[in-house]
Amino acid sequence: MPTARTNFQATLLGNGKVLVMGGVNGLGFVTSAALYDPLSNTWSSAGTMATGRVRFTATLLANGKVLVAGGNSSGAGAGIALSSAELYDPATNSWSSASSMATPRDSATATLLGNGTVLVTGGSALGYTSGFQSSTELYNPLTNTWSAAAPMSTPRDHHKATLLNNGKVLVAGGWNGASSGGFFTPLASAELFDPGLPAATAPHVVSVTVNGNIPSLAGSQHSRVVSLVVAFDQPVQLDTDALTLAPHTNNVVFAGVAQPAGIGVLPASLVLATTNNITWVVTFSGNTENGADGLNSLQDGVYDFNIAAAKVHPLGVPGISMAGNASTTFHRLFGDVNPPTTPAGGLPGSDFEAVVNSADNLIFRNAFNNPANYKAFLDFNGDGLINSLDNLQFRNRFNRPLKWSV
Fold first, then answer.
1. 9-193: what CATH class?
2. Per-residue model confidence as pLDDT tens digits over 97-122
């Protein structure tokens, strides 16, 4: 890590990176945060928290941000606990203040509930030695507010809280000041918090849309494929490799030549982003055709976008999975403006053909060196112009059909 620290928190983000924050070292409480990128095995800065702290909570929210709450920044033992909270936004790589809790809490727990709110339980108001709390609070990310929740029957800190598949939260163990022989006596008691939410159900895929998040690239054209948009019927959490790409290999033919191994180049990685855990935008990094406009398109080919049912769960309920796998077959062929058709002798709905032809050429020529008719999906290098460089790529694909079966 860039900075030595102990007693900190580490949170896996939706983009696959790990956010490390807070803690303490020989120089004092650490305010800096860092990001670990497993693809490059490198660390980078993740900004600075307003308050260095230890024994705090860090929770990944449904909108992709991380909520940091409570802890201690004035020392061990009798140090005063914190009620303040902060938010990290991976989209801007920056920190901002969040509303403070009603009660200072050192060594509390924070649990993301199925409705996107965060339950914070227990902790202690004076370090972790006294002021043990039975109270609980709920944080609402939509309103940036805290509200009181039902109190626990037993005050405790250094305990554990686990979201169950039925939506309830199991709180167990910890301590609350009782001692024996000069040492704290741990608790064996446990209790359940019921948020009163409907029982979790298996999620389903509502739709998979090609290019859906870029208005200028949306529609039937597959000339540049810069993203996929996946919509579920409820907020979900995704395990690693829940969403993958693979070459489509069923009866693929390009320019009259059979392609038994398929055609296309897989990107080095898929980048996932979501603001509500319902709609997920998938973009591509590495082995792509990168435009000057910052959009990375898949290379020409036919691809299967696969969703692994066992790796898709209701938000906060990893014990329940999607009912069945889902797969969407799509193509990318630069210059192809129209939807695929059924080839001669093919079976409608099963056999497909995409080709750059005279209909596409008419649209291309109208946009050629004509900013008024500019089409981003015909701009091969994304430089904002349809010119001779794009024309070369267009002509190389003209009347060379791409066929496949599903």
1. mainly beta
2. 999 999 999 999 999 998 889 999 99
